Amino acid sequence: MSYPSSNKKLKVAILGAKGYPYVYGGYDTLVKELGERLQKKGVEVTVYCHRALFKDRPPYVNGIKLVYTPAIEKKSLTQLTHSFVSMLHACFSDVDVIFVLNSGNGPFGVFSKIFRKPTAINVDGLEWLRPKWKGLGAKYFFWSSKLATKLYDQIINDSDEMQRIYQELFQANSKVIAYGANPALSSDATKIKKWNLEKEGYFLIVGRLVPDNNADIIIQGFAKSSSKRKLVIVGDVPYQDDYVDNLRKIQDERLIFTGYVTDPEELKALYHNCYGYFHGHEYGGTNPAMLKALGYGCAILALNTVFNQEMLQNGKHGWYFEKSSNSVREIVDKSENSPEEMKILRETSRSGLTQKYNWDHVTDQYLEVFLTLAKK
């Protein structure tokens, strides 16, 4: 699907992530994959970038227009103030549609309403339940998410379960468009030698080391197991944090903390060659780290949540553990005693990437939304 050539170009602004081509998390990946494909389909794409993260600030990269906006550089204010400035700028620009990421930006829809700019917002996960947002933070995210359903023209959820929750909590209609995946059949196995690892000689965790990803429960459960394999923990947080410090204090020679792995080929090799991939994410919808695990052929051991059940087709493409270290220990021992079943999970995981997780299909769905909004 592409914009009719006889008409003027569709202009779409994207804001709420860190920018382009910066890739650090799920939103940044969405901006990159969606922005590049929209641009190739003849859409004029503008991406708002967090100025402090970009030393070089070219006006265009790969045909995508970049606008660098400032923010108040404080942990809890950075994202919101960056989005606030970006939204105002976009409202004064000549774009046809504004696409916003993150339900925390819900209140800024008031500006697009005043300026009569059509908007869509991808609200992502249940931010108000995340342990890092206690008290006021949790109240803000709940209020903000509710407000988003009133102020934006199109709400987008990334999973069927998230759509159901938004319908029940806010009586809001939404469209489900998942994240996409980039499956790969092979990787450079020598890349894991950097950590003295061998093929299928380790379990893997990938994600930010924050409480809602439950790395603590997985590590404690693994430490109780009799596994001879290692547990590789990929990820960190970009600030001083007691939670991470306590994880690193757990005494077990089988644990390997790699910190951030920014080389995509190294990360791919870590996924490809693991014996099992642990997924402890609790409050999201479609999770990019899980999509990588499916696309890279991992045997997946996931926390039992409605979102993980949806992504793994209710156990077809993975096993589940409950939120306790004993449950983790049991699933480690089960996987150690079931090498054939683990091999089958690895061999069949890519078939879990149905059409809904194909980036071209994802882009077509977004383009349809933007064209509909532009016509209105």
From TrEMBL:
Presence of keyword Isomerase: no
Residue ranges of every copy of the DUF1972 domain listed in the record: 98-181
PANTHER family noted in UniProt: BLL6006 PROTEIN, GLYCOSYLTRANSFERASE WBBK-RELATED
Sample GO molecular function, one term: glycosyltransferase activity
Superkingdom of origin organism: Bacteria
Alphabetical keyword list: Transferase
Positions of the Glycosyl transferase family domain: 190-350
Keyword Transferase attributed: yes
InterPro entries, A to Z: DUF1972, Glyco_trans_1
Full protein name: Glycosyltransferase
